[in-house]
Design brief:
5-stranded antiparallel β-sheet, alpha+beta, 447 residues, 8-stranded antiparallel β-sheet
């Protein structure tokens, strides 16, 4: 049981360590204890016992972070048994869920109630706590990241006590803990703002790189949710426009949806990337053929069926948030860098936006932001590509996504975030002994 005392069995624990791996397989950890509390009381007890035994504590979500943010050699807390909807408050327009609830399960439950989140990312396998703690976002002209939709949360602090936070209650903690990096405590429950279920019309359309970059401001202004993918080694992009609709409901056909999302976007894409890994010289030709095979499509459905899609092809990713006015200039520099290099990049580059928000360490904190995400297929070389892209992003004052690969440290991040000192001071107050610390947090927050 999660609440069993472990201190007397530390030697045995160390000899029988389980191995935890993230989704991409690039991060592993061997915790002394691997526990799955089934209640908030059990969670508090786990943290108290770890403190008594002098062990660090890290909760993990679904492992979709590419960084070692959740890695620990101490006590690893799995979220599987802390899941489900606690309450729906229609009058307040909120839903409260346990921290380990998967976004997929939350979206389905909300739809049954005729409700929805306003915006979301493009996958929904993450837990709500993991997604928000690392700043997961989608794209939006005026609707921000998932964490910006939080209206309250529960936090188990370093001494095992429970702290409730909102704009009215412990507002300083609330301002930071919505994207807390796991540094302030263990989130046990989150209250999200929700709204009546609505429809989105999606229109996906191929477009040249030159056209989409020349008209980006107009496309961004004209669409509630706009993003695009550029295919390296080509001048081709795919654009995605999602806007609210009065209907009628016109979902993608079942076979067409299965064929495009499962066969093309996952099965064929997996095969193409495997070929590119085996024969890197073929990557540019493959990219040209693949990007030209795209065709326009439109459909209308409820939000999570438009915003999200299955992503099963394993890759590594780095993403930076830039001032939105610098987005296209930086992207053009990334393209020029790839074009003049010997790199072979088989994954498209993703471009999204978000409005400014008021979360202390949000990548969009205090500024309207544009995002550029670069990826490589798992097993392909990535360091040279990511380093070259990162040098472009940091020249524009970019902020790395907290759950994706980067090389920045506390010195750089303190200059990139005006409220960085506010966060670290709060951490010093809530966790002076670094109960929730690990190597990643030492690098990005200092010690």
């Amino acid at each position: 049981m999660a609440t069993t005392r472990y201190g007397a069995h530390a030697g045995k624990d160390r000899a029988n360590r389980s191995v935890w791996r993230n989704w991409a397989g690039n991060v592993t950890a061997r915790p002394v204890r691997d526990v799955a509390p089934a209640s908030v009381d059990e969670l508090c007890a786990v943290v108290r016992e770890a403190a008594e035994d002098g062990l660090p504590v890290k909760p993990v979500g679904s492992g979709h972070s590419f960084t070692a943010a959740a890695a620990t050699e101490g006590v690893l807390i799995r979220p599987d048994r802390l899941a489900g909807v606690r309450a729906v408050d229609r009058e307040a327009g909120t839903v409260t869920v346990e921290a380990g609830t998967r976004l997929e399960d939350l979206n389905v439950a909300l739809a049954r109630e005729g409700l929805s989140l306003t915006n979301m990312g493009d996958i929904m396998k993450q837990t709500v706590a993991g997604a928000t703690n690392t700043g997961t976002h989608g794209t939006g002209r005026s609707s921000a990241a998932i964490a910006a939709q939080i209206r309250g949360l529960e936090l188990v602090t370093a001494d095992g006590s429970l702290l409730t936070c909102s704009e009215q209650e412990n507002p300083d903690v609330f301002a930071a803990a919505r994207i807390g990096l796991g540094a302030l405590g263990v989130v046990s429950a989150i209250t999200f703002a929700v709204e009546p279920l609505f429809l989105l019309t999606a229109h996906d359309e191929p477009m040249t790189f030159d056209r989409v970059t020349a008209t980006f401001d107009e496309l961004h202004a004209a669409n509630e949710h706009f993003e695009f993918y550029w295919f390296p080694h080509t001048g081709n992009c795919n654009t995605l426009r999602n806007n609210r609709s009065t209907g009628p409901l016109a979902p993608m056909g079942r076979f067409k949806g299965w064929f495009e999302d499962e066969v093309l976007a996952n099965g064929v894409f997996q095969a193409v990337n495997s070929l590119g890994r085996a024969v890197p010289a073929a990557v540019p030709a493959i990219a040209r053929v693949s990007s030209r095979a795209l065709s326009a499509r439109s459909y209308t459905d409820i939000p999570y069926k438009v915003f999200t899609s299955p992503r099963r092809v394993k890759m590594l990713e780095m993403e930076y948030a830039l001032p939105r006015e610098a987005l296209i200039s930086a992207l053009r520099e990334v393209k020029a860098m790839v074009d003049r290099s010997n790199l072979r990049i088989s994954f498209p580059v993703e471009v999204r936006t978000a409005p400014a928000d008021d979360i202390t360490l949000s990548t969009a904190s205090g500024r309207e932001s544009g995002y550029i995400a670069v990826h490589t297929y798992r097993g392909m070389p990535f360091r040279e590509y990511f380093a070259a892209a990162e040098s472009i992003f940091t020249a524009y004052g970019g902020r790395p996504h907290w759950g994706k690969l980067h090389t920045r440290d506390a010195g750089y991040l303190a200059s990139a975030y005006p409220r960085f000192g506010e966060f670290t001071a709060l951490r010093e107050r809530l966790d002076p002994d670094r109960r929730f610390g690990n190597e990643y947090l030492r690098r990005v927050l200092g010690d």
